[in-house]
Amino acid sequence: MMDGSMMGWFWLWPVLLLIGLALLAYLIYRLMQDRHGGAQEGTSSAHRILDERYARGEIDEQEYRSRRTDLN
Question: Is the keyword Membrane assigned to this protein (predicted)?
């Protein structure tokens, strides 16, 4: 048997449902971002590769600085 005291809690279920859907949407968004990678990740990767090539002597200083400027 339901009395008036339980009726006040029914507003909570739609709110919890909306919070759950928002969290689910956020998690899906983050998973997609991690899967595709961000632009900053690619740039730092390119800088690292360029630094490694310069350190190994594959490119000279002039080419290194030119490519470094192009990446920025």
Answer: yes
* Overall residue count recorded for the chain in this entry: 72
- Note the pLDDT tens digit of each residue in 46-64: 888 989 999 999 999 999 9
* Averaged pLDDT, 30-45: 70
Contact between 68 and 50 (Cβ < 8 Å): yes
Report the alpha-carbon distance of residue 34 to residue 41 in Å, rounded. Answer: 10
Give 23 or 7, the one with higher predicted confidence: 23
